[in-house]
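Note to self: user wants both folds in one dump. Writing first protein now.
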Amino acid sequence: MSAATPQSPSPHTVLGSGPAGTELARELVRRGHPVRLVDRKGDGPAIEGVERFAADVSTVEGARAAIGGAAVVHHCVNVAYHLQAEVMPRVQEAVLAAVATTGARLVVLDTLYPYGETGGAVMTEAAPWQATSRKGRMRAELDERYLSAHRAGRARVALGRSADFVGPGVLDSSLGAAVFPGALTGGEVVGLGDIDLPHSYTDIRDVAAGLATLGERPDGDGRVWHLPTAPAVSTREVHTMIEKRVGRPLNVVTLSEPRPFGPFDERFMAEFAEMFYQYTEPQIMDSTAFERTFGAAPTPLADTVDATVTWYEEWLGSR
């Protein structure tokens, strides 16, 4: 994905050190920015050019400490699925209060949850927010608060929405540890819902590059953007790409309803049940607006699959 080079480096703070936050930190370093990567422990493998920092950003005090000195704050925090409805609003409140105090711009990594069930309609930024699930309504309420804070002049905010993550370092997604290890070893591979329906997947590197671009481009503030995402194909087609790359047929176990499988334990699947509609209807995200506005292009899915298989080969070899 291409991106504009910033006129001058500015300090960026990334909240959350999961796959998106970690890849974003690396991307920002590549673009020449000083970067602080924040999580509760402040540890983890060293990343050249990145300062690790420990803070609890669900508190105003922790958020202020974490973002001190930053010109741009990227909110990539996520929590265990069963805690999201409780914790994510607290994180929002603390982070918004902190950036309101410091004046830093805020870029938020977001999901497609606010749209709810679409009946297979293509999701653009103009699609209505009609979520009925608990987590979907929560995400929609958070997003409206972010945008309201921007409109009121309390904060400068941009939202970047992603489809399901896939790519190097991504474990906990529908195309993560429940797919690639089995593909490489001949074990079982999960397929959620109807794998013949088109489904959008966003390369984690495009997530990072898109968020970095929003951090560098204040002209993107005040609205939702769909981060660059390759055209949707069926999950079965993605499986075929993986088969070609690994040189063996996949042993696919299709889950027609949510139940525990591999890394998806009983507690996760119980919480995930209300979101399972994403795999029983076409899930098609359009990122044309971002691509045209910022001169970006998503990574082709075949390239994403190749890079992901290579990463999992190394990951499995190190275990």
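First done. Writing the second protein, which came from a different request thread.
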Amino acid sequence: MDSVMERMSLARSASARTASSSSASLSTPVASPRPAVIGHRGAPVGAPENTLASFGRAVRDGADALECDVHLSADGHLVVMHDSSIDRTASPHGPLCGGDIADLTRAQLDTVELGGGERIPSLDDFLDACGGGAGRPVGAVVEVKAPAAARATALALRERFGAQPMPLPDGTPPAVIISFHPEALRTVRETAPEIPIGLLAAGVDDEVMQVLAELRAERVSVWIQTLEDGDADRAWAASGASLHVWTVNTPEHLDAALAAGVASITTDDPGWVVRERDGRAQPVG
């Protein structure tokens, strides 16, 4: 999430939003006094994004869950990287520093050097980090960047967690799949209905509410810059979905997220958000 093109698309969508006139069919959602903190591609303030170093840093900094992005390689492997190409994040001094992931094999991608000597993880590597390999078990939030990767991602999570996933110690599911693409989420729902799904959107307008209802989505993630009063109520009315925000990196955006009572906050600096969240929750006196 949060590429330049995605931000432009979200900004255009936000400018065209209209307030929903749908009436709530479910009870009003309860605001979360202690939202979960999700490391956006790990903790890229301290380590290269979407790398094992970044995921480990986020866990050490107290993140409750880790977010990653997945694509399919040319030979069908699930690859953890935000962009559809390696151009931006690959070291220019490595043996391979350009090309689309969909055109490269896993063996070729294994030769790519990222910052700090890191390599491109697989989805299994990411899930290992979430499962305790980075220090303690945390939730996995997997963003499907291309609809073609949706089925493989759902099957990989089912293989890892089973058709009846055991919740984490805090009661949350071990893995969630999110996407900007309703068709990708539809594929996940059909392939592995036990996996919670979340739609990424500029805000919760009538069109988004319709998609949430159709997919029976458990959550919706809204860009913090387009968050509006009433988004939580509209999401809940549509499908009982919880409201989440990304990417929160400033005090002003953190204030807005906490005031909205969101269920989770995705950030590039999970250590800072954890400290702020927990510090504000302490009683005064």
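Dump finished. Worth passing along: The CA atoms of residues 94 and 113 lie 6 Å apart.
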